[in-house]
Input
Amino acid sequence: MQQERKFLAFDCGATSGRALMGTFNDNALDFTMEEVYRFPNQTVEVEGRYYWDVDYIYGHILQCLSDMGRRQVRIDSIGIDTWGVDFGCIGDDGGVLGMPRAYRDPYTVGVPQKFFDVVPHDELYALTGIQTMDFNTVFQLYAQKEEGCEALRSAKHLLFMPDLLTCLLTGKVVCEYTVASTSGLMDQHTHRLVPSLLQALHLDEQLFPPVSQPGMVVGTLRADIALTSGLGPVPVVSVAGHDTASAIIAVPTETEHFAYLSSGTWSLMGIEVHKPIIDEKSARLNFTNEGGIEGTTRFLKNITGMWLVEQCRKAWKRQGREYTYNEITTLALSAAAYQGRINPDNPRFANPADMDDEIRHDLAEKGFPPPANDAEVLSCIYHSLAERYKEVLDMLQEMAPFAIERLHIIGGGAANELLNQWTADAIGMPVVAGPSEATAIGNLMMQAKAAGLVKDRWEMRRMIAETVTMRRYVPTKTNKQ
Output
């Protein structure tokens, strides 16, 4: 008799969080997925500093669990993924000390250069293989030490965001490999945090639990949550806690000769390799090596993505103009001929007060004609992203140990048909788009692996390819610039 197994994936992002239920059939090894809960998320500003309201996020997770209990849904396990680098402090009583600092807080601007006086850049990159970005955990810790952060002084444990939420659910502490690998504190060869770096930060090594691989059952729901939700002692699995690591699991490919673009607020473009690529060229081009499942490395570059559009939408809304994403696509296409371009990764676009105004100033400084309307701003963003994707893909091809044959676009951006086509035109290579829910699917697949339903990432990917609808784009000359 076939038995259904139900796994609950919490995918918490910088702008929203959601829970998706995956139902697996034990024998046929097919699965279905439905969204069962969603909530908005954003940073909280307190006296000029930006934080994550972890109590708010945790409260929504508890509300979802209570909803499942009321519906009498039997859940076989739970997994949580989030963004990387950010962390929270746990006190002696197991409670969270204050709110975790948000990576978009400008308090780390200029900090890398200060830290390089303590640990030189070449030495840091040779150890960690992580690209230099102001908000890397190593630089956040340095900045917080400089500020005299009371939570950091009083912490018993430092936990990355998915591990922090897992701890709140189970009372157990864990340091999951894929999210820890984003910190700039991990040796990419030994998969352990580097003692000398913690010493350089004047931090006790015991603050971090030992690094564990994804797929481990951390524990079960705390007794009070098990009781109040009505779900009982559901196991909580430490999945690939970094959302991009979860997303890469869901690339529907049968070959290793691919590049991926995890497209959302951030665009992360990279390849999956068997060992880190750490050399002079990767350092000079500022590429990063992050952990994947089954001993793989995600060799990639962070690119500012739909953050540009999201922040423009906010600026326009304040001025009384609101657009849906379908309307945004239509507007961008209507102004396809606009020639103005920006560098999406320019630090000026990290967190400006008004993104539309910042883009216009940048274009003016470069001598481009000012955008006549919102449509031309959107066309500029879309074309600039497509051209940046080509630049990064060209760099990847120079360093990849194999020929890249196609680009897989996964995540929310997989549904953006216009940007996907313009990307195919820019890179001159086929683009395969989907699944859009890659992160949640990867989260669910790791829970299925922990339950013994799938054996490896290739079996996961075959299941996904057979289940998820994908769209293919081939280069055309219509929009090629």
Observations:
- The first helix runs from residue 54 to 70.
- The mean pLDDT is 95.
